[in-house]
Structures are given as structure tokens and as C-alpha cells.
Amino acid sequence: MTGDPTWLVPLPVVLPLFGAGLALALYRRPRAQRAISVVVLSLVLAVSVALLVLADSGPLVIDVGGWAAPVGIDLVADRLSALMLTVSSAVTLAVLLYSLAEGEADGDEAAPVSIYHPTYLILTAGVANAFLSGDLFNIYVGFEILLAASYVLLTLGGTGERIRAGSIYVVVALLSSVLFLIAIALVYAATGTVNLAQLAVRLPEIDPGVRLLLQVMLLLAFGIKAAIFPLSAWLPDSYPTAPAPVTAVFAGLLTKVGVYAIIRTQTLLFPEGRADDVLMWAALATMVVGILGAVAQDDIKRLLSFTLVSHIGYMIFGIALATQAGWSASIYYVAHHITVQTALFLVVGLIERHGGSTSLDRLGGLAKLAPVLALLFFVPAMNLGGIPPLSGFLGKVGLLQAGVQVGTPLALTLVVGGVLVSLLTLYALVKAWNKAFWQTPPVEPPRTPLPLGMIGPTAALVGFGLLLTVGAGPLYGYTDRAALTLQDRSVYIASVLPDGERGQGESAEVAEEAEDAEHDNAPGAGDGTAGDGTAGDAAGTEAAGTAADGRVGAGATTDGGRP
Amino acid sequence: MPLNPDTSPNLTLVLVITALVTVGVYLLLERSLSRVLIGVILLGNAANLLFLVAGGAAGRPPLVGSAEPSEMSDPLPQAMALTAIVITLAMTAFLLAMAYRSWQLHRHDEVQDDVEDRRIARLAARDERATTDADTEDTRSTLDEEAAETRDETDDAPSERTTPVEVP
Fold first, then answer.
1. How many whole angstroms separate alpha carbon A62 and alpha carbon A79?
2. Cβ-defined contact of A526 to B2 (cutoff 8 Å)
3. Could you tell me which residues come within 8 angstroms of residue A250 by beta carbon, excluding any fewer than 6 positions away?
4. Which of A188, A296, A297 sits opposite B54 (nearest CB)?
5. Is the pTM of this model over 0.90?
6. ipTM score here?
7. What is the domain extent for residue A379?
8. Cα separation of A394 and A476, whole Å?
9. Which stretches does UniProt call biased (Gly residues) (chain A) (predicted)?
């Protein structure tokens, strides 16, 4: 197996799932549960980094269970997926360490930890599955895995406030899932496939009106998940009530999975961009409405939830530009925003712990009381506000440049809007900074000491955000190449379906054997055409196998494995 | 395609789907979680039926060797519908548990409004700021007065207020 790295691809999904099962079985041993979670997530991070490096020389594809692609499920790790996966696993690991330290400090009575670990691992598996999936229905399954886990995490403990927030969240999420499911059924009815690569081939052949309907349905479903205005109202209501680490990982990851799905479908399935103008307006509205909401808030958690909504607008803006520069900047912005938003929510967890509240009315003087905390808040806050030379600035500059390059009046409006929203973000964050850190507290805070184990992961995430700044050159190079692959769809299609018809699973041969058996039993009409098709397939697979580098080994090993 | 080539939709199924979606959407707009739950179930079932329609006309069981491929129904949407049924089942169980918990806590299972939003809206209606800010609050003195209070080192005759207390 040494020459063929595709066996790495399913690991980010499989490892957490196994870990979750093991952690659930060991629910009486919290220490073992913690060890399992940390080990599994560290392994996932290592695998993701390996995939990040490997995917740079071409997408890695695996047909799950050896079933060939259009019928079987395939997992694809191209540059975009691998980058998302790496950032998300780094973030989930940091949040896990933070929550471990929090549990250590509070005693385990505060939360049902025996449930927390398996659920958290399942959430990670769902996120990885959504990122890696090369199949629309499998993306749906990935969404459902992560959503089911998120329902449990959001209502952890079942207090009145969490049930209130949870019911809104769950109902909205269920609605978006049903929309997605209906969209998938319509896609299947129109094209006869749900495999992304095959859809990319077949969608241009169907009626343009139907194609637009499918695009809008998918955008609606993903738009709810990504919290694009006017489908964003659920987010600021539901996120702030959850425990701090849960809010942090939700804010960082879950909306970005929606954004990822939009990037994937818009670039691969609907490259003619007929929804781009609508998306532009939606992006503008998301940015403006979100940030105005943030300005009005006096609770830091809610304020940050609104900035989260607002900054989704930037990513949608980049996607709607539909140029390589726009996509590249958008992908960079997603990576930056996952890190920064999660770090900020973790810091807010620390603030709540130290100052006893997240309401700006009751906080104050934290810069003097906890200078480390002040530093930890200040850096990601300025990063989010887009102060040079931090990664938020670089991401926004990339988006603005891409917008100016396109140069249509609408794109230029978005550029101006983006700058204004950036300014308002800074205003909202400086307001929070001023109130919570500089002014004298109205009541003396209870002075809970901050455990080093919680500061460590937060600092690591803040540091990771700075790393995105320092390493912006290579990272932008990577996202540029990722965007190039998105634009040139043939790379993706060819690596999933090397001959344009079938993937590299065993079922091609199985089908052939079945055909042969049928020929022997009943040499009836209609078999001739089908038999020709599979024979052509087999020949094509061989030819394309040599073309796609490193993938000859895949076929060879699966063949060798068969008895 | 080796499978049954007849893809014309089944009208009865389409009508049933329409009815299910209509009722489902109506129930989803209710406030009680139990009704929302029934709405979600109906919508989920509508989606599952839609998968059956998407698979084309019904045919023989899709088992190799049991029938000609051209007479088989398409197994793929059936597999997807099965997966969706399982997922809907799990979600239903969770929503039911949540509705029950809500009833335990509040003796009703109505979806409640977000109080925080209303509070902010009320503040806005009265044109009040959400937080008090020492820099911007009215401190009953103008900048000029504050400047006068501050001792100026180049000033020959310091104002009375800042004159240090005479040591006897």
C-alpha cells in the first residue's frame, strides 16, 4: 500500500466514528474517553495535513467499498477539501483541549461529559464527510451526521434556555434538510445520478429552466445552513446559549460547511453562474444586516454571532464573483474566518469565566485584571476587523481586488459595501473592547482564576490565526491552485470518472461478470448494447488509469486484494 | 440504460406528495413543537415519495437474475429513500424528546420568542443605548471646564481648585 496514498482519504471520517463508538462504550471511564478523543482528533489532524500535501499534486479519489463511482459512493480529497479539512481538524482539536481543561476545572458534574465526547467525535466525522464527499446524497448524509450531533451538543443539559434556543435551531435545520432532500430527488429525477462528477457532465445537457430550479433549490438548502440573509435569523438566536466550546466549534465550522457546499456546487455543477447576481445582493444584505445587528448588541456572544453572519457575506461575495481570484480569496477567507471566529468565541468563554458575564453592561476593567486575556481578545478581534497586516486584512484585500477586477457596477457596490462593513466590524469590536477591557467595572467581578489548560488552546488558535498571516503567501498560492482546479472542472471529473463513465471500483468487473453470466444463461435481446458498454468501460479505465498519475496502483491493489 | 426506460411520473404519487407537502408546510408554521414535528414527518415522507417518483415507473425487484434489467425498477432512489427514512426517524425521536422536555419545564411545548431580541428592540424604540459608556455619558462638565480643572504646568497662576493644599 506504500505507493498509493488513497487509503488516507476515508480516515478523517472513519477514525472519529470508531472513536465515538469506543468512547460511548467506555462511558464509565471519563479518563479513557478523554484519551480517545484527543488521540483520534490528533490522528485526524495528521491525516488532514498529509492529505493537504498530497492533494496538491492532484485529487485523491477512493470509491468506498470498491463500488465504482456513479453508483457507489466516492470520497474526493482535492485541494479545497483538504484545506477545509486541515483547518477544521486543527480547530476541533484546539476546542476539544479547551473543553477538557474546562471540565477539569469545573468538575464533571457541570455537564454530562460521557455524552459530550462521542457526540463531539461524531460531529467531526460529519464535517469531514461533508468536506470529502463526492456525491450529493453523501453530502446530505454528512450534513445529517453533523446536525444530529449538533442538536445534542446545543441542548446539552436540557436547561430551559437551551431547549428554547434548541427548538428554533432544530426546526430550521430540519427544514433545510428536507429542502436539500427534495433538491436531491429532483436532481436524480432530472439527471439519473447524484454523483458530483457525473452531474457535472450531465447537468449541461438538461433543460436550462430545470437546471436553474435545481440550482436555486440547492442554494436555498445550503443558504440556510450557511446563514445567508434572509435565511440567517436562526443563528444569533440559537448559538449564544450553548456552552462556550460548543458555540466556538459551531461558529467556526458549521456555517462554513454550508459555504463549502455552495462553493462546490456553484463551481462544479453550475459553472454558468446564473445565480451570481442574486448571490451578490444576498452577500451585500448578509454583510450589512449582520453587522448592523452586531452593532446593536450588548452581549459579546450575540455580538460575535452577528459578526459571524455578517462575514459569511464576504465569502458569498467571493463565490458570486465567479473568477479564479474571487474563489481563491473566498477560500482563504473561509480558512481565516474559521480560525478567528472560533478563537474569539473561546476567548469569550474565558471572559465569561473571569468576569462572570458576557453582557457588556456588567463587564469592565479586564485589561487590568487579566492582561493575558486582553491580548488574546485583542489579536483575533483586530484580525476579524481587518487591521493590516493580519489575515483578515489579507483576505479582504484579496476579495476587494477580485471585485475590482470584475468591475461591474454590482461588484463595485459590493467592494464599497465590504469596506464599510469591515469598518463597522471594527466599530462593534472596539466598542466591546472598550467596554469590557478598559472601563471600570460596574460591579467587582468574582475573580475566578483562569486554568492554564484553557488559555493554552485559545492561545494556540490565536497563534494559528497569526500563522495564516505569516504563511499567507504560500497559502494564497495554495488557494489559487485550488481555485484553478475549481475552474477547470475536467480535473475533478477525470479523477473521479477516469473514462467519463465509471470510477475505479470493483463493480465494473462485477457488472461484467454478471453480464457474462447472463450471456451464458439467456442470450436475449438488449444484452448486446449493455455488454458493449461495459467492455468499452474496462478498456477506458485502463487507458485513463495511466493518465491519472499514481492511480494505476489503486486499481492494482484492489484487484490484488480480491480473491 | 439497462433499467426500465419508462420515466413518466406516477400521477397518484405526485398528488399524494402535493397533499403531504401542503399539510406539512402548514403544520410547520404552527407554534407547538408537536405539530411542527408532525409537519416535519409529513414533509419527510413527501420527500421519500419524491425519490420513488424520481426513480421512474415501478418494475420488478432489482435482483440480478430474477428479471430482465429492462423490467427492473431503479434501486438507487430506493436506497436513498431508505437512508432518508432512517435519518427522519432519528430526528423525529430527538424532536419528540425535546418537545417532552419543553413540556416538563414549561408545561407547554410552544416555540418561544427570543427575549434578547425583544429587549434590544424595546431599547431601540425608546432610543436608549444598550450599554452605558463612561466616555460618552453626560458627566455634567464640558471639555473646557475639565481643561480648567487640570493643572497646567506652564501656568503662572494656577486655578484655585488645583492649588495644592498649603502645608502649615
1. 15
2. yes
3. A150, A153, A154, A239, A242
4. A188
5. no
6. 0.79
7. 275-470
8. 9
9. 525-534
